[in-house]
Design a protein that fits this description.
Elements (H helix, E strand, L loop, with lengths): L1 H9 L6 E2 L1 H14 L7 H20 L19 E2 H15 L12 H12 L9 H6 L4 H15 L9 H13 L15
Helix pairs in contact: 1-4, 2-3, 3-4, 3-5, 5-8
Length: about 190
């Protein structure tokens, strides 16, 4: 799961590392999907989150001693490898085992989860419907996978919508579950 997430969602240029170019591409994707202006407060919040998130990954992988710190203290071009990202996810996983909500030690993750929720909520109505979920596909195969994933997440409920609380729970389940049948493993469609 971690490898797929890293390769398919974070490493935009497929060079094996997440760099400032990938982060900028991720930010631009968010801007495009949400139809935001370059000076939008939502885009600014997402940009701040991305910087904090990168700092936390770097701190956990010992590339920085500055968790929650300033991006200006980081070398100009620091990259994150799959190994770095795997160590980061494992540290989060240890904190999440047995939990259904984000602990205070991972409070910065709520901004990330909010951003993911907002990306998937394409009509901005505060819930993720089947139509929202299916509209975020990358290829015909991804679309087919998303249809199957939605059936697992919704338990085939015809009128099911995914609210933010349940989305949070599914994201936590994605990070901690080792059971491929758990609904959280399907939250991003292609896992």
């Amino acid at each position: 799961k971690v490898r797929f997430y890293f390769n398919e969602i974070l490493d935009f240029d497929s060079d094996g590392h997440v760099s400032s170019k990938d982060v900028e591409a991720f930010k631009n994707m968010y801007k495009y999907i949400k139809n935001l202006d370059h000076d939008s407060p939502d885009l600014d919040r997402f940009s701040r989150f991305l910087n904090i998130w990168i700092e936390n990954i770097l701190a956990i992988t010992n590339q920085s001693n500055n968790p929650y710190g300033s991006v200006s203290d980081r070398p100009a071009e620091t990259t994150i490898s799959l190994g770095d990202f795997t160590r980061y996810c494992e540290s989060i996983r240890r904190e999440l085992i047995g939990r259904s909500t984000w602990p205070a030690t991972l409070n910065y993750m709520s901004d990330y989860i909010d951003a993911l929720f907002n990306i998937l909520d394409t009509d901005n109505d505060g819930v993720i419907s089947k139509e929202d979920f299916l509209s975020n596909y990358a290829s015909p195969d991804d679309y087919s996978s998303r249809i199957a994933s939605w059936e697992i997440i919704s338990k085939r409920g015809a009128n099911f919508v995914l609210d933010k609380k349940r989305f949070d729970q599914l994201c936590i389940e994605f990070l901690v579950s080792t059971n491929p049948d758990d609904a959280g493993n399907w939250i991003f469609g292609t896992f």
